[in-house]
Amino acid sequence: MNFERQPFHLAQNALETLDTVGQWFGMLSLRLLLAWEFGEAGFEKLHGSNWFADIQDQFPWPFKLIPADLNWAMATGFEIMGAFALVIGLGTRLFSASLIVLTVVAIVSVHWPQAWSTWAELFEGYALTDKGQGNFKLPLIYIAMLVPLVFMGPGRLSLDYFFQNRIGRIISILQITSRK
């Protein structure tokens, strides 16, 4: 055995193991954290009172054209259904993209600074608490966490992956039987 190459092989095997484990659990951690956050927000809306009428004029187009009650119901529904979908990994890309749109609307309507004239003033809003300059840090982090789910999918520990493999096997079987 060549001892000079052994550390390289150990490192390579360790990285391959991490890659394999990551395919099963990497995206799951993002999905579960995001599901908790959006589910919590959705259930707060479900059991709270509608305050969207107070900020309806701040919504971006086309959402400002939709009645506040319908916007409230859509936001509540997408947060709760999206949270459930993220937990089980079903329709992950669709719900992640929908939650990105919802989060962008929230940033524009609620979290963005109302007035800023310099980049320095804008970045004062990159905070968790609103001290008069906005607070778009946390929603921006949610978007950064949702983007990999849109582009890479939910990972192997998901119903999306399960159904994708089942459908792929059925198509393969049908192709094989049609050739005979």
What does this structure look like?
- With 180 residues, the chain is mostly helical.
- The chain has one domain (27-179).
- It has seven helices and no strands.
- Helix 1 runs antiparallel to helix 3 (68-88), helix 1 (6-47) packs across helix 6 and helix 3 (68-88) packs across helix 4 (92-111).
- The model has no long low-confidence stretch (mean pLDDT 87).
Brief write-up:
The chain has 180 residues and is an all-alpha fold. It contains seven helices and no strands.
Please tag this protein with its features.
7 helices, 180 residues, mainly alpha
* Beta-strand share of residues: under 5%
The total domain count is: 1
Number of contiguous helices? 7
Radius of gyration: 22 Å
The SSE order reads: HHHHHHH
SSE-based structural type: mainly alpha
- Helicity range: over 70%
Biggest pleated-sheet summary = none
Overall morphology: extended
